[in-house]
Amino acid sequence: MRPFELTAPATVPDALASPGAFLAGGTTLVDLMKLDVETPGHVQDINALPLRGLDTRDGLRIGALERMSDVAAHPGVYPMISRALLLSASQQLRNMASIGGNLLQRTRCSYFRDVAAPCNRRDPGSGCPAISGSNRMHAVLGTSEACVATHASDLAVALTALDAQVVLAGAEGTRTVALADLYRLPGTSPEVENDLRPGELITEVQVPRLDWAQHSTYVKVRDRASYEFALCSAAVALDVRDGRIADARVAVGGVATVPWRLGAVEEALRGTPVTQESFEAAASVAADGATPLSDNGFKVSLLPRTIVRALRELTEGSRA
Prior knowledge:
Blueprint: E1 5-7, H1 12-17, E2 21-23, H2 29-34, E3 42-45, E4 54-55, E5 60-63, H3 68-73, H4 79-86, H5 91-96, H6 99-103, H7 154-161, E6 165-170, E7 173-178, H8 179-182, E8 201-207, E9 216-221, E10 232-241, E11 244-253, E12 260-261, H9 263-269, H10 276-283, H11 298-315
Helix pairs in contact: 4-7, 9-10, 10-11
GO molecular function, one term: FAD binding
InterPro entries: CO_DH_flav_C, CO_DH_flav_C_dom_sf, Diverse_Substr_Oxidored, FAD-bd_PCMH, FAD-bd_PCMH-like_sf, FAD-bd_PCMH_sub1, FAD-bd_PCMH_sub2, Mopterin_DH_FAD-bd
Domain FAD-binding PCMH-type: 1-212
């Protein structure tokens, strides 16, 4: 790790007035600094900022510095959010990691984290060795010739399904952005991972009220039962009335370069009976447009199976 200056601003304006990397839980930034992937000369410990709190009176409002474990344990949080958090990392990391930091964590692609390897995200124009190299964990949706790295956050998948927004504070004031619009597809410039402006800070996450999202889940398929990133995951919420699906929310992770909302699957589910056949028919379009690589073609079939598994988990006992 290279030398750096550490400061601890007491207010949001103080933090915005001084350029530097923001440190909350440190569970991502410190790792990347140890690897020399991130080399900030100035680090701001923002844990004293007034960015905590969780309000469930009308929808859900989560301060960016709330810890993952605390949010997961809150009784007013939608089940898919709690499950996404509890299936992330380890208990020790969840106790430290902040909500804002989780949403902005960078990819776990091994080439990105190895400074001796080319990587277009880390060194634009150097190439993407994952395309022809070791790519079992990589994306099949939203990829480009410049990058095939998956987005790492489980929480972001659940929040994307729920139309969450993030409040951003910056030198030009405060703005609110849909979380789905915050992330950028890699295209030809994968080094630009999100729509944050220089010096901006996530201050709050807002989830609109959706009463039937109490009937939701998050399913994560991975190589081991804990402390592992997703091969495929699915955040699903259902509004079931009289044995039929009135509405649905579906987003997936582990298979795409950003949290991936599946509007076509949602539309295919609406109005259908709660049956295995309906689930399979709707999920069959989930991988449309996928571009598998040499080692991750299994994700094309794993994706619809994961969605069906989540749908069955939500409806066991009520299916025809």
